[in-house]
Amino acid sequence: MPMPVETLRQHLVEAFPDAQIDIEDLAGDGDHYRARIVSSAFADVPRVRQHQMVYAALKGQMGGELHALALETSAPEAGN
User: Fold this and answer.
1) If 0-12 CB within 10 Å is exposed, 13-18 middle and 19+ buried, where does residue 46 land?
2) How many beta carbons lie within 10 A of that of residue 49, not counting itself?
3) Burial class of residue 39 in the structure, from the number of CB atoms within 10 Å of its CB (0-12 exposed, 13-18 middle, 19+ buried)
4) pTM: predicted TM-score of the whole model, two decimal places
5) Is the model's pLDDT at 54 over the cut of 90?
6) CA distances (Å), origin 75, targets 34, 44, 64, 72
7) Is the pLDDT of residue 22 over 90?
8) CA-wise closest residue to 58 among 2, 9, 11
9) Which of 5, 33, 67, 77 is the most core-located residue (most Cβ within 10 A)?
């Protein structure tokens, strides 16, 4: 069963409440998404760890309800 975009967004907002989050359904099937997440939680955190933080926020649903997630993560630029 695919993951609705609203559920994906809810998990991300809960984990990164200050984040700017953009989600795109890549295949129109609720199973393949691209997420761009800009959050202060990612400041001074290596990219691999940022992605691990996102996967942890999905509470084990990556690979189950959510088949594929292309991630773009970053911290806000200084002064923004």
Assistant:
1) exposed
2) 10
3) buried
4) 0.88
5) yes
6) 17, 8, 28, 11
7) yes
8) 11
9) 33
